[in-house]
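re: ur question from yesterday

yeah so i grabbed the chain u mentioned. its 70 aa long if i counted rite. heres the sequnce exactly as i have it in my notes:
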Amino acid sequence: MKVKLLLVFVVLLAFPSVMDAQCAMCRAVVESEADGGTAEGINNGIVYLMAVPYVLIAALFYFIYRKMRG
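ran it thru and got these structure tokens back, copy pasting raw so excuse formatting
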């Protein structure tokens, strides 16, 4: 179970382009520009900003689980 969870986590960190998450307004403004590099940079920034709170909450619950179990 731990190996599967670790593998999923590594894959998600290794391939952030798979998770193209962006708000509709930002996407529309950036896609209207001729340069596609800006859009990709903004998409990656949004994904990283979105991931940090989830990782922190997951770590918190993991430490609570370990504390309650042992």
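noticed a couple things. The first helix runs from residue 2 to 14. also The CA atoms of residues 34 and 49 lie 25 Å apart.
anyway ttyl
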